[in-house]
């Protein structure tokens, strides 16, 4: 498969993920033209590729800066972002340089994946597992891990690791596990008011 074919497949995959997660999406063209979260993700994929080469790092930073100005989403080109990533609304999302985001992750507006250290050359930002949902305004700070399938409630502040499948809400975040084993995370949102996003 050529580079162009892979890029097209990735774009289709991103659009499909957006449509699946955004009930306001009217059509594929609506999502492609009007989703600042998707535009930020696509720009990041380009800037991240450029970030891999020392000679093109300045260009990568310019792309990320221009993208922030246009979309309100700031993703450092060094951040590693997985497949089918979706940012709903977008405005105010910040993802730091050493953040790692898994596949099938969803962020709402105002989320920060930030650092707690000023030491250069170290991992300063969180690692987010596959299938994680992070609610509006949440802050996940430092070199911590958020396990697969975890949910972080709106406006929560997370500074400690979150185990896979856990729910974290509050400031600072309290961690618990769903009361019903195997409960659909979407259905859990209606039982847990702190998760409303």
Topology (elements, then pairings):
Elements: H1 3-21, H2 28-34, H3 36-51, H4 57-71, E1 74-75, E2 80-81, E3 86-87, E4 94-95, E5 100-101, E6 106-107, E7 112-114, E8 127-128, E9 133-134, E10 139-141, E11 145-146, E12 151-152, E13 157-158, E14 167-169, E15 174-176, H5 185-191
Parallel strand pairs: 1-4, 2-5, 3-6, 4-7, 5-8, 6-9, 7-10, 8-11, 9-12, 10-13, 12-14
Antiparallel strand pairs: 14-15
Structure write-up:
It is a single chain. With 197 residues, the protein is of the alpha/beta class. It has a single domain (3-195), classed as 3 Solenoid (UDP N-Acetylglucosamine Acyltransferase, domain 1). Helices cover 32% and strands 17% of the residues. It is built from 5 helices and 15 strands. Strands 3-6-9-12-14-15 form a 6-stranded mixed β-sheet. α3 (36-51) packs antiparallel against α4 (57-71). The model has no long low-confidence stretch (mean pLDDT 90). One of its GO terms (biological process) is cysteine biosynthetic process from serine. GO terms for molecular function: serine O-acetyltransferase activity. Its EC number is 2.3.1.30. One of its GO terms (cellular component) is cytoplasm.
